[in-house]
Structure formats: C-alpha cells, structure tokens
Design a protein that fits this description.
The protein is of the alpha/beta class. The protein is 39% helix and 12% strand. It is built from 16 helices and twelve strands. The longest helix is centred in the last third of the chain and has 26 residues, at 338-363. The protein is globular, with a radius of gyration of 24 Å. The two termini are 43 Å apart.
C-alpha cells in the first residue's frame, strides 16, 4: 500500500506553499514551534524492577539518620553483616553538598559508597537529584489517598503497569511513549529533519520511544545488525543456491520485487525494506566512527552506553539534530537480599554513567547530552526484614553539561511513615513531583515550546509548575 504519512504530507505542503507564495506564512507559524537548532540528545536510563530510593539518597545529619535507622533496623543489620556491601553507617555515607541546602532546613544528605562516581558528578555540578518523582494525574495528599477522594494512576505498585505509566503515561497496553511524543513534536515543527535515527533503543523494544510519526532504531554493542542469510554462504548450501536465493531475498526485502496485491504483505515488505536500507546506511556511517579512548565494557549496561556513545560520535553524519535514547538495567526488585543484590547494581550504574560522561566530554558533546534515570517505582521505607517492597515515588539523577547541578530538586521527606508524605505506615512515598513535570523540564531544554509540552504530556495542566528548574535553558 502506498500511503502518505504526516511527515510526507508536511514536506509536500511546504514544497507546494513555497511554489504558491505561502511559505512566509508557514515560516511565521514555524517560529512558534520547537527549536531544533544545534544538537541535543536525551538518554533515558531505566531501572527495571523499581530501585529503592531510600537506599540511594540517605539522610546524613544525626537526627534525621537516627529516625531513618530506626525505621530500617533490619536492613541496616543485613548491610553490616554483608561481606560485599558497603556500609550504610551514617559517617560512612558520602556527603553530597547541595547548593540549595537551605531549602531543606538543615537536612544533610549522603550517598552509599557504591555511588561514589555519581557523588563526584553531583559535587562538581554536573548532576542533580530530583526527589519524590512518580506518576501522578494531579497532586494528592495522604488524606485524599486514604479516603479514596483523589485521582491516582491505575494499577499502582504493579511492575508492568507502572513501567508503562512511567514511559507512556498509561498502564500496560499503552501504545505511545512520551519520548516518542517529544520526537513527534520535533518532526511536526521541522518536516525537513531526517527521522530515521530520532528514537534509538539499546535495550530492545519499549513503549517509551514509540510515537505516531517516527520509527524506532535499534543499536547494539556489536554494531549495526546484519542479515545472516545475506552474508553467510554456509547456510544455504552450494554457492549457486546461495547466490540465487540471496538475490530473491534481497529483491523481496528491499522492495524491488513486484507488488503482490496483498495490502498487508506489501506494507510489511515496505517496512522491512526501509529497515534494511536504514541499517545499511548506519553501517556505512558507523564504519567511519572515531575511536573512543574512554573504555566502556563490552557487555551489560556499559555496553549499551557504549553503543549510544558511538552513535553520538557520528551525530553530524546522521543529520538528526534531536535524538532520544533508551538504555535499561534490570534486577532492582529487591524483596530479599537487598544488601547483596542492590550494591552491585549501584556500582554498575554509577561507574557506567561516569564513563559515559567521560566519553561525551571526549566527543565534545557533554553540554548537548542529558542523561536521566527512571524506574517502575520507588520502594517502601520500612524494610521487610531482608529487603523492601513496591512503593510509588522515588529519587532520580539527571546528569549532563547543561544540568543545573549540585542541587536537590523536588521533595525529600522525613522518615515518619505515619506522616503526610506516605500512603500508609509501610512508607510508600507519595510523589511530590509528577513524571510529567520531570519530563516537561527535560522537554524545555530539548527545545519544545510550552504548548508542545502540554500536547505531549496531557496531565501537565494539573500542576502549578511545568519546569522544575534543573536544566539550563
């Protein structure tokens, strides 16, 4: 089926307008749209399983730590007995020194020693912490939550649903993510931009990057994908069989074969052909990438970040001035053995983020790239003896050369689980910052206008601020 998508329609409309003398009017409208000058990239690092926010940013002044330790006595005992976990004793926590400490009335903060690389980024002003982030429809209090009078997101505390709600503002089955919506807004603002590499995943399929305008491009640490049937002569037997079959497959897969008349088959063939063509184009660009001296591991989380860094290294050749990347790391559902499991994950993510920063500095791109973290949810303040259970709001990192760093934004509650900051006595944190406010602040830096951010983030109108201030605009 031959169809014109919105981007093609806009491109054709611009061409017709230019021929008919209407271009100045369109250009005036364009001036009110997203700013796509220069290059900017957002990199989402998603913690699958729900990272324990209370084991990330920890109160460090004596009074606050005492209340925290009393609430988490069993878990702190497990940390003290662990042979591999870093201490969670107050004086062993790495101090973070926010420039806006006065906002928190003398409260002091610390990070566990496994997150030391992130403490360096924070204290150098290259990272910020946003406290109490979570999915919200509208602001809600504990009283409203307990009475059932406030509107809350559906299926709270469910892994799949809250992963989807973080990524797509709706429960499992949602089709469009807010990363994809951002790129839709960019595409509509400037139809001339190449859209093949705007949404890029290093962690497989996810709804976060899905939009209505642009396809998602997958990358891997091993470089661009290849089709083994077209490259491995041993698969099809004799040389003549291979050559003949490869010719037929190439014709079908690159849309050179005659149309079948079956709408679905022909559309599928066209999509497949486009994917092969784009992958081959990236492979040619990738082959001439610069060599990074920053060493990111070949496997796991760092390998995903390395694939992102390699694509950013050839950004000028991609002709895509805006990109949204997705990276994932799992294992954060720490109902048990949290002291043994979480600490290794924290080392992995902190070392990887610091190395990614070094790669961006090496490429001269650190001011143009913003990395931010996300997760299913936070976890309960009260431990369950050996771990923690599903929560709601959590604390997240934002890092980049354009971040207004060395500050804690949002909220950081006390450890009184009977107080107004929690849904119940188990210590499920009620978000003080909605995911959409968090996203909107990133979107403003990305170049989206307030109207475009409201279009991409439908619940944003229910909150008093659409910019939390953690990005330099």
């Amino acid at each position: 089926m031959r169809k014109t998508n919105r981007r093609q329609f806009l491109r054709q409309s611009v061409a017709l307008a230019s021929a008919g003398g209407l271009l100045p009017s369109l250009m005036n409208q364009q001036a009110l749209a997203a700013d796509t000058s220069g290059y900017k990239a957002l990199v989402c690092v998603f913690f699958f399983g729900g990272i324990d926010n209370n084991d990330v940013l920890i109160p460090r002044d004596a009074a606050s730590y005492g209340r925290f330790a009393n609430t988490r006595a069993n878990l702190l005992t497990a940390y003290a007995a662990s042979a591999t976990a870093g201490s969670r004793e107050r004086l062993d926590l790495i101090p973070v020194n926010p420039l806006n400490s006065g906002v928190f009335g003398g409260l002091e903060f610390g990070l566990p020693e496994e997150l030391e690389p992130l403490s360096r980024l924070f204290n150098s002003g290259e990272a910020a912490i946003v406290g109490g982030v979570g999915p919200l429809i509208e602001p809600i209090t504990r009283t409203q939550f307990e009475a059932g009078t406030g509107i809350i997101p559906n299926q709270l505390f469910s892994h799949n649903d809250q992963q989807s709600t973080w990524m797509a503002l709706g429960t499992e089955g949602s089709k469009i993510g807010w990363g994809g919506r951002f790129m839709d807004q960019i595409s509509q603002s400037d139809p001339s931009l190449r859209d093949d590499f705007v949404g890029v995943t290093a962690a497989g399929n996810n709804v976060f990057l899905n939009g209505s305008e642009n396809a998602v491009f997958a990358i891997s640490p091993n470089g661009p994908a290849s089709i083994e049937l077209l490259t491995n002569r041993n698969i099809l037997g004799s040389s003549s069989d291979f050559d003949a079959t490869r010719a037929l497959l190439e014709a079908q897969w690159t849309a050179q074969a005659a149309l079948t008349g079956n709408v679905f088959a022909d559309d599928y063939r066209d999509l497949q052909a486009a994917g092969i063509t784009v992958t081959e184009q990236y492979a040619e660009i990738y082959a001439n990438r610069p060599t990074l001296s920053t060493q990111l591991n070949a496997n796991g989380f760092e390998a995903q970040l390395r694939a992102v860094a390699e694509m950013i290294s050839v950004r000028d050749q991609l002709n895509t001035p805006r990109q949204v990347y997705f990276v994932g790391i799992g294992g954060f559902d720490t109902h048990a053995d949290q002291a043994g499991r979480l600490t290794g994950l924290q080392r992995t993510l902190a070392n990887g983020i610091e190395k990614f920063r070094d790669a961006m500095v090496e490429l001269g791109a650190w001011n143009d790239v913003t990395l931010f973290t996300a997760a299913d949810f936070g976890r309960t303040l009260n431990d369950n003896g050996d771990g923690t259970d599903h929560g709601w709001g959590g604390h997240h990192f934002v890092a980049g050369g354009s971040v207004r760093g060395q500050r804690v934004y949002g909220g950081f509650p006390d450890s009184d689980t009977q107080g107004p900051n929690y849904t119940d006595d188990r210590g499920r944190l009620i978000p003080s910052v909605s995911v959409e406010q968090y996203a909107s602040t990133l979107g403003a830096w990305f170049g989206l206008t307030p109207a475009e951010r409201r279009a991409a983030l439908p619940n944003l109108v229910n909150f008093s601020s659409d910019d939390l201030g953690f990005m330099q605009l």
